[in-house]
Amino acid sequence: MTDAKGANGPLSRLAAGVVVAACAFLPVQAQQALDQPAGPVVLTIQGGVGRTNQGDRAQFDMKMLEKLPQKSFTTQTPWYPQPVSFTGPLLRDVLAAAGAKGSKITAVALNDYKTEIPFEDATRHEVIVARLMNDRPMPVREKGPLFIVYPFDTKAELRTELYYNRSAWQLRTLQVK
């Protein structure tokens, strides 16, 4: 029989088990770093961000956004005469990828337009960060490359000025507070 000091003793095996169990509780963000963008940065998330790849910010290129689960829907908007199909990751998935937490989000467009979005909108509604419109990438002149879009046709409450104003096209930054 080996004693507690032995390499194969019961206390050594117990200590090894404790170390293995403790590793299981390490923060997820320490185990998974956010990838570095390989292409041009199209979205920056700053503020209440837990997973970063550029200082205290999370930056995404289009390929990183494409790798997230995609959602598509067709909806009538006040900006187009006919219903339009939009595709992109859910806003909540983009925020989760950055480990973002807060109570409000300020969406900032390329032209510095700003709109405030309650953080709970990301969980309450199927809001997407659209990267495709009618199955095609959106150039800047057509409200791209990214557009926060609510599924306006799913609930009457979303077909109001309040939610239309929260839809930011030419999105470049999400500031989480």
TrEMBL record:
Gene3D superfamilies cross-referenced by the UniProt entry: Oxidoreductase, molybdopterin-binding domain
Signal peptide range in chain numbering: 1-30
Superkingdom of origin organism: Bacteria
Keywords: Signal
InterPro entries linked to this entry: OxRdtase_Mopterin-bd_dom, OxRdtase_Mopterin-bd_sf
Residue ranges annotated for the Oxidoreductase molybdopterin-binding domain, each copy included: 75-151
Protein name: Oxidoreductase molybdopterin-binding domain-containing protein
Organism: Acidovorax soli
Source species taxonomy: Bacteria, Pseudomonadati, Pseudomonadota, Betaproteobacteria, Burkholderiales
